[in-house]
Write a structure and sequence with these properties.
globular, 4-stranded antiparallel beta sheet, 6 helices, single chain, 7-stranded mixed beta sheet, hypothetical protein PF0899 fold, alpha+beta
């Protein structure tokens, strides 16, 4: 048994390739600044440029410019602190690699674990004070006719999308909502026109379309009040910036064990950079 033939790039590439299939929340984030991330502790500056002033005249006269405007530019600091890692033993890493057991070990176990940690971190943005909650008094979400203190599941999504439009999000801007299993059950009862394209159904958790919103399903939706409330995020791609590094994987021989071992690390983090483009549908079920 040895690790001399271990191909670290092969393992790392398999993790990164499979991550793209498992990630749900991360898929719909702004990744523009990801290339700047090298290691944990790095601080990434995300630039936000204010909309310039638009002046309209109605007299048809020649326009005289009074001087070029300098639009306000602000930057948001994303300090990358999250590190997700694994470290487990394999009886013979060379044999496992040659036998093709790699796929099962990485793609179905290790990679899903890393993807969950990345998505949980992004879903947690919904619980932050800066994230705008749709309801000041949390209603019970229901299918069908809503009674006192309740709201219909489709109406909740409609009101969230309305809030985005009122914040000047263009009507043709891509919007995504990621729902929990219990929210999805109610949603499906009231909305039968789901996307039935089987090739797309399972892609990054996608389960359908509602209006111009892509609906995805995840068990990592953030909760509040000890799990009694769901914090459903309705957002544009620009709302949250997220970064991750390429995974690093190494094989080694533990001193105290008659076995090989594999360890790996993925550095990642996220930040809400456009609060107006995220609405949290905060609902309860009882």
């Amino acid at each position: 048994m040895s690790v001399k033939n271990f191909i670290s790039t092969l393992w790392a590439e398999k993790i990164d390739r499979a991550l793209d299939e498992f990630l749900v929340f991360y898929d719909f984030c702004n990744h523009e600044y990801e290339g700047q991330l090298k290691k944990a502790g790095d601080t990434i500056r995300i630039q936000n440029v204010a909309r310039p002033t638009i002046t309209t005249t109605t007299d048809g006269a020649e326009i005289t410019l009074s001087g070029a405007e300098t639009p306000d530019v602000t930057s948001v600091a994303l300090q990358v602190k999250r590190q997700s890692y694994f470290d487990y033993g394999i009886y013979d890493v060379d044999k496992a690699q040659a036998a093709g057991d790699l796929d099962a070990a990485l793609e179905h176990e290790t990679t899903q674990g890393i993807a969950n940690e990345i998505d949980i971190a992004i879903a947690g943005v919904a619980a932050e004070a800066q994230a705008q909650k749709l309801f000041s008094t949390v209603p019970k979400v229901v299918s069908g006719t809503a009674g006192s203190g309740e709201i219909n599941v489709l109406q909740a999504l409609d009101e969230a999308q309305q809030k985005l439009y009122e914040a000047n999000v263009p009507a043709n801007e891509a919007v995504e909502v990621i729902v929990s299993p219990r929210f999805y059950t109610l949603f499906r009862r009231d909305y039968a026109k789901l996307d039935t394209n089987n090739s797309e159904i399972l892609k990054n958790g996608k389960v359908g379309m509602y209006g111009n919103m892509t609906v995805k399903l995840s068990n990592n939706v953030a909760t509040a009040a000890s799990g009694a409330q769901d914090l459903i995020m309705v957002r544009t791609r620009k709302a949250i910036a997220a970064v991750k590094t390429l995974s690093k994987v190494e094989a080694y021989r533990p001193e105290a064990r008659f076995a090989d071992a594999v360890k790996g690390l993925t550095v990642h983090d996220r930040k809400l950079v456009r609060p107006a483009e995220l609405v949290v549908v905060n609902v309860k079920y009882a």
